[in-house]
């Protein structure tokens, strides 16, 4: 099995680098000077020692997380660090979350998702598989159509819009996009923006719904961050997650560090072989690492590269979020699912971010995980072939 070329993606750490296709200013993108070539660019955080940058990142994230948590914002420890990461990344911070740390965080999140699965959930998926697959496939078609429109309208060069519009499987899409001759840096940028938009909107919707659904005079439930836990089960959970993630990375499976722990822990948990133990404080650290990894990827170089197309990229993402919200209305009307559960279940990725938000709110977590996991697997299986098929009907003169 040949080793695919490494390309920047939301699953990788560090700043993305331009692919050969991105050296020339493509059609639809205004040529912008990069921070390295523009002498007027002020490298504010880049001139600060890295130790001080880490201190600023940790301190600001802690403060932001506390503030958001005080106002009962769901997934505060994901959203807060992500916001701080974006601010620091766009101000030329040079620190990056090590790839091993990000993969470790994904493995822990995979263990959390796998531990939330039960035999009843799998049975319900089997009973409703037509509905689950149908909704997921419609979402894929909608995202592919939006990407195709971006391409034929020459908003983005070549087939970038098709690969960048995929609702998940970011690393696989970036790799295939470069192999197909698209600008990998722009594809990765679209994926970053989609994740940030989905997380922000989902957090706002969850916060509004939870606040408005409380009875008059009722208070928000207190979150217990440091509960008593079984150290043996905790260690075994981490061991299983770590081994599974390592295997997924070695086999070079897209998002393998998240995918393999989900499957392994789910099988062991359902059969009673593993009692998943993940304390809230540890999950909070995991959420922060994922938030930092997303936020710090928004570098000045990437923003300069995609500046002229950003408004239309945002418009396409908002349209996709709106389309998925429309599907959630159907779930509410015909299946009796509560609105917040339906919205999070149909939200266009990513699985890790939506799982974090769902775990911090009072929703039907199993239903959400079934829908999101189905979308995740379908995007991995048919997303790249579907994008490639749509790309064949896209004019290549802009590439």
UniProtKB/TrEMBL annotation:
Compositionally biased region (Low complexity): 15-27
One Gene Ontology term from the biological process aspect of the record: regulation of gene expression
Alphabetized GO MF terms: monooxygenase activity
InterPro entries: AbrB_dup, AbrB_fam
Record Pfam families: AbrB
Keywords recorded for this protein, A-Z: Membrane, Monooxygenase, Oxidoreductase, Transmembrane, Transmembrane helix
Membrane as UniProt keyword: yes
UniProt keyword Transmembrane helix, yes or no: yes
Gene Ontology cellular component list: membrane
Transmembrane annotation, as ranges: 75-97, 103-122, 129-150, 162-180, 192-211, 231-251, 258-275, 281-301, 313-335
Chain residue ranges for the region called Disordered: 1-42
Official protein name in the record: Ammonia monooxygenase
The organism of origin for this protein: Thalassospira marina
């Amino acid at each position: 099995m040949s080793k695919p070329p490494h390309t920047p993606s939301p699953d990788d750490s560090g700043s993305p680098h331009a692919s050969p296709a991105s050296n020339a200013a493509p059609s639809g993108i205004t040529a912008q000077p990069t921070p390295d070539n523009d002498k007027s660019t002020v490298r504010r955080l880049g001139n600060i020692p890295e130790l001080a940058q880490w201190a600023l990142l940790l301190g600001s994230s802690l403060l932001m997380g506390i503030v958001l948590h005080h106002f009962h914002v769901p997934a505060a420890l994901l959203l807060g660090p992500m916001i701080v990461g974006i601010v620091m990344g766009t101000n030329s911070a040079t620190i990056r979350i090590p790839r091993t740390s990000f993969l470790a965080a994904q493995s822990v999140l995979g263990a959390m998702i796998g531990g939330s699965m039960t035999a009843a959930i799998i049975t319900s998926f089997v009973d409703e598989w037509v509905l689950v697959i149908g909704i997921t496939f419609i979402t894929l078609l909608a995202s592919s159509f939006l990407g195709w429109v971006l391409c034929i309208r020459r908003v983005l060069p070549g087939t970038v819009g098709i690969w960048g519009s995929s609702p998940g499987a970011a690393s696989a899409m970036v790799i295939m996009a470069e192999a197909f001759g698209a600008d990998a840096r722009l594809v990765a940028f679209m994926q970053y923006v989609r994740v940030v938009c989905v997380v922000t909107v989902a957090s706002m919707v969850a916060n509004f719904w939870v606040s408005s659904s409380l009875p008059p005079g009722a208070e928000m439930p207190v979150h217990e961050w440091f509960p008593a836990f079984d150290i043996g089960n905790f260690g075994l959970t981490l061991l299983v997650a770590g081994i599974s993630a390592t295997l997924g990375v070695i086999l070079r499976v897209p998002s393998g560090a998240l995918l393999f722990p989900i499957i392994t822990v789910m099988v062991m948990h359902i059969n009673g072989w593993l009692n998943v133990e993940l304390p809230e404080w540890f999950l909070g650290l995991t959420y922060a690492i994922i938030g930092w990894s997303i936020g710090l990827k928004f570098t000045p170089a990437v923003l300069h590269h995609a500046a002229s197309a950003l408004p239309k990229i945002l418009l396409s993402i908002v349209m996709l979020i709106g389309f998925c919200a429309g599907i959630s209305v159907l779930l509410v009307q015909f299946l009796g699912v509560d609105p917040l559960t339906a919205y999070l279940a149909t939200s266009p990725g990513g699985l890790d971010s939506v799982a974090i938000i769902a775990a911090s709110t009072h929703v039907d977590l199993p239903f959400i995980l079934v829908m999101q996991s189905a979308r995740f697997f379908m995007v991995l299986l048919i997303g790249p072939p579907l994008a490639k098929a749509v790309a064949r009907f896209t004019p290549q003169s802009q590439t």
